[in-house]
Amino acid sequence: MSKEMNRVIRRMIQYMLLMVVLIGGVYAVSRFLGDPQVLAIPGEAAPEFSAVDLEGTEIRLADYKGKGVVLNFWASWCNPCVNELPLLNEAHKLTGVDMLAINVGEGKETVQHFADRYDLEFPIVLDSEMNIKQKYQLVGMPLTIIIDEDGTLVERHEGELTELEDIIFLMNRIRQDD
Fold it and tell me: Where are the alpha helices (DSSP H) in 45-152?
């Protein structure tokens, strides 16, 4: 190949790489600027959703208005989730704070088997279409969201909660003592 041909090929590769970077940048900006009313950040209203639980009952976030709720996004293949859910279950029993476990992307049979194995006592909703995941801007799991009685997102904890005391502390932020 001639030097001229090598130069032309190099120039084409550079232009293609530049196009990929530009397209990626446009995509990232459009994702960042898109639909600002569903930002899942502390201090803002928690994005509304409805989903079906393992019994086939429709669960809506609005059902927890006036009480507050803990949301936990998880999957059975996620080792930190597997470690965390039994602790969340124990904290739920100790505090009485309402909790929803939102399974991301798995089938009902897999989720039911997991729930039975760990004797989970809180409702588990299925986010098989990953709509809730998208509204809450889930990047990694587990993700624990604390929502107060007014529907405001109070805390967003990304990653595994490893200590029961820490979980109880988070739950107590929205605990309603009668």
Answer: 79-95, 108-117, 131-135
